[in-house]
Amino acid sequence: MLSIGALRAHLLTAHLAGPVATSREESLRSYRLFAARDPRVLIGLDPEWSWSQRDLIGLMADKCGVSADPGCVSGHDVIDPERTLAALDAFADRLAAAARRGAPVLLGTGHPHRLLGFYAALADALSAAGCTVIVPAKGHCVDITTRFGLRTYNLDYVQGVALVREPDAERPGCEPGAHTHSPLPVRTALAGAADAGGPLPELVIGDHGWVCGAGQLGFEAIGLADTDDPALFVGEAEGSVSVVVPLDDAVRSDYYRPLTRYVLNRACLSQ
What we know:
By secondary structure, the protein is α/β, with parallel strands linked by helices. It has one domain (4-266). It is 42% helix and 18% strand. It is built from 10 helices and 9 strands. It has helices spanning 4-13, 24-35, 39-42, 53-63, 81-100, 112-128, 184-196, 208-216, 230-238, 257-266; strands at residues 18-23, 76-79, 105-108, 141-146, 149-158, 161-165, 203-207, 221-225, 243-246. The protein has a 7-stranded mixed beta sheet with strand order 4-5-6-3-7-8-9. Helix 4 (53-63) packs across helix 9. The two termini are 12 Å apart.
């Protein structure tokens, strides 16, 4: 098993934690928009509490380790690796609990070009442990508002992991899927599972709208989030999201492999 020291060193070397690529300006903009309840930043969450930008800075300082000083308005954000490690342990514990009871699980990502491999390894290990990795509503259309206007995507699954693709993105050489923060894909998947009379997930694993959208609907949800994704951490603070791991969610895909090994080993799951 990868040691805590080795994993901590990797987090810092790969810039998954420590100073990360996300800028303070980006994060503050997200906090400001969240405080104004902009749907683009709520990503499926309907907060119970009123959150000001100052409240969010305090929350993110507690959950991620970013600066708690509202006067800090520039530079790179910083994630405390100790918080990442603690959250990875909690994340692994939820995987282990799902595996022990053979729970149906749903995995989805809005970062397929970076995180598909991480989630695919979890899907494979959970399936080997007796969990049903559900793939509902495959091929269904999802209309998502983007900065370029309304676009139609197709819900697809790669190695048990849900993602969305543009309709013409099936040809070889294309990206594995589109980047999105929208909660509409998980809503489509969950509605499809209900309509088909198949199992509903007892655990949803992912990022962005996959976590917030599922958690808002009452499903246990765990995932990964960067410092400019306050919605997941608000969901965790309010109790609609079980576990959020703070890290840079857009580094090279192979940099997540040590995290995969760590959480699977801690959860006593084989890869």
